[in-house]
Specification:
By secondary structure, this protein is α+β, with helices and mostly antiparallel strands. It is built from 1 helix and 5 strands; from the N terminus they run βαββββ. Strands 1-3-2-4-5 form a 5-stranded antiparallel sheet, covered by helices on one side.
Length: 66
């Protein structure tokens, strides 16, 4: 898990990681208004902004991003 000050930075990293590592990455916002990239098995302590797989946003019921 890594923390970023903006959602744009976090989603950029999530897209890159999910594309080149062939994994799913979750981006969520913490109570401190920071954004975290995590793997699906990690515990999420905030509001999910988006889920990325193969470099693309995956629509889910848990995501705020559309």
């Amino acid at each position: 898990m890594n923390t970023y000050p903006t959602v744009r930075q976090a989603t950029g990293v999530a897209r890159t990681l999910s594309k080149f590592s062939a994994c799913t990455i979750v981006v969520y916002k913490t109570a401190e208004s920071k954004f975290v990239t995590a793997r699906p098995g990690d515990s999420v302590d905030g509001v999910i902004e988006g889920v990325y797989r193969n470099g693309y946003l995956v629509p889910t019921l848990l995501s705020r991003a559309r």
